[in-house]
Amino acid sequence: MNREHSGTISLYEAIGGAETISRLVQAFYPKVQADPSIGPLFPEDITPVMEKQALFLTQFFGGPSLYSDKFGHPMMRARHLPFPITPERADAWLGCMKRALEEIGIEPHLQTAVLERLKAPAYHFVNTP
Asked: Which UniProt keywords apply (predicted)?
């Protein structure tokens, strides 16, 4: 979202920018790792995944294009194809994100905005019934 054209700030700015993205990722991944349906899909050393997620969410929510600058076009569906992603796993991922947003104290209307923004890609990655 470009502030000059839309007259509004990006979701990235609304939630608090880089500091909030960092706190969100730190709160999110322990929940993911503990989830029996999606935890096993992630590597034991979660640090590189967390770093990429922070770059991606920054860009996805309207902040600087950190992910693309470092890794090129996100192509997130293709990057997730090696993993069996079911609708239930997409729900679990979104549930972990919801709990992380609550834990770090994001305002309820912004929690809703973040989750709405993430719903489409979460279900777009589904590749297994």
From this structure: Heme, Iron, Metal-binding, Transport
Find the domain containing 110 and state its range.
3-124
Where residue 74 falls among pLDDT bands split at 50, 70, 90? Answer: confident
What's the number of domains the chain is made of?
A: 1
Question: And the tokens for 2?
Answer: 């470009």
129 is a domain residue: no
For tokens 């194809």, name the residue.
Answer: 81
Output the domain CATH number for residue 115. 1.10.490.10
Nearest to 75 by CA among 54, 97, 56, 101: 56
Residue from 125, 95, 20 nearest 11 by CA: 20
pTM for this prediction: 0.91
Answer whether 112's CB lies under 8 Å from 94's CB. no
Q: What does the alpha-carbon distance between residue 85 and residue 82 come to, in Å, rounded to a whole number? A: 9
DSSP type of residue 41: G
Burial classification of residue 113, based on how many CB atoms lie within 10 Å of its CB (0-12 exposed, 13-18 middle, 19 or more buried): middle
